[in-house]
Amino acid sequence: MPAPVVAVIDIGSNSIKVLVATRSASGGILALATRTIDARISAGISKVDPRLTEDGMTRGLDAIGALLKDAAAFAPVRVILVATSAVRDAKNGGEFRARVAAVTGHEIRILTGDEEANLIGRGLTCDPALACLRDFYVFDLGGGSLECLAFRDREIEQAISLQLGCVRLTEKFVADVATPFTAEARTKISDYTEELMANSGFRFDLTQGVAVFTGGTASTCRAIAAARNGLAFDASSAFLSLDELYLTSGLVARLNLDERKRLPGLPPARADVFPAALATMLSLAEIVGFDGFHHSLFNLRYGLAAEALEYLA
Predict the structure, then answer these.
(1) Which ranges of 50-112 does DSSP label H, i.e. alpha helix?
(2) What are the φ/ψ torsions at residue 125 (nearest 5 degrees)?
(3) Given this model, what pLDDT does residue 208 score?
């Protein structure tokens, strides 16, 4: 009897993603299909009274419909829709959920920050490339929030969610996304990141300082580095060294928005928020003392797929 197939749609602040997955012969998570649509439903997320815009909700609905169609080709026995920071924080998040349910027939599960962080952690443990790691840190940077986790003996010891997402910080600290990224904006983001990290109570032990980064920011950094070195993404190193990140940061900061949109490896839809995202990533490395990050594609969707497939076993 073939293993069951599940589909997970992650409705993030900046992008909406699908993973169609099943169990591999060895018991791991086997991805049958993945796709990401940069829908940016979170415009205005940094406001005192955050609300999803009509355009943002329309883009979200269109993206969810397209990804559900992709998933349907695999006849999944279960389809899971989850939403994170943008819908969680928006005053009209309930209205968006109701629209999605009316159009698609699927309910959206709103994840708390703790649930999101823990499911990201579960997804990371599915990555065979990280199987040798016992004690490590995990960071997942999205449009609305940054999830931080500490693993000890492959079990989650700490998990927090901080409002350090790249859309949120771009709206808060970048005066004009069309112009080159300023040193002033970089300093403000660094100071703000340091303040929130210090007040979070999250603890670091650099004797166990291996750090893993997931999410679109890390994927984009790797894609830019791969293009710069003439490599395909899959053939590029999964370790993003601090020197490599500084090189990318210096390049990106000099470019205006139109130039960033043409930079190989940088998705045009992310070009406006990528400088703030990279500044946050670098600030985290500087604050803690990491020499770089191990990149993994196994994140929230994989954690949800593992949870669902375990239930169906």
Answers:
(1) 54-72, 85-89, 93-104
(2) -70, -10
(3) 66
Cα angle at 65 between 60 and 67, to 5 degrees? 95
Q: Per-residue DSSP letters for 244-269? A: HHHHHHHHHHTS-HHHHHTSTTS-GG
Best CA proximity match to 300, nearest among 3, 4, 2, 15: 15
Interval 202-230 mean pLDDT: 90
Q: In the block, which residue shows the tokens 């299909």?
A: 33
The rounded distance, in Å, linking the Cα atoms of 98 and 108 is 9
Which domains are present in the chain? 6-114+300-312 (3.30.420.40), 128-295 (3.30.420.150)
Local structure of residue 129 (DSSP, 8 states): G
What's the pLDDT tens digit per position in 265-282?
A: 999 999 999 999 999 999
Q: How far apart (Å, rounded) are the C-alpha atoms in residues 294 and 304?
A: 22
Mean pLDDT of 283-310: 93
CA separation for the pair 97, 83 (Å, rounded) = 9
- In this prediction the pTM is 0.88
Q: Under a CB-based contact definition with an 8 Å cutoff, are residues 233 and 242 in contact?
A: no
Let me know the angle formed at the C-alpha of 167 by 163 and 172, rounded to the nearest 5 degrees: 75
Long-range contacts from 188-191, C-beta under 8 angstroms, 24+ separation:
189/276, 189/279, 189/280, 189/283, 190/279, 190/282, 190/283, 190/286
Hey, what are 261's tokens? 């949109």
> In degrees rounded to 5, what are phi and psi of residue 115?
-65, -45
CA-based nearest residue to 168, from 89, 92, 252: 89
What whole-number percentage of the chain has pLDDT above 70?
Answer: 97
Distances (CA, A) of 14 to 10, 158, 217, 232, 237: 11, 25, 11, 24, 25
Tell me the per-residue pLDDT of 70-81, one tens digit each, with 9 for 90 and over: 999 999 999 999
Q: Which of 14-18, 76-80, 125-129, 150-154 reaches the highest mean pLDDT?
A: 76-80
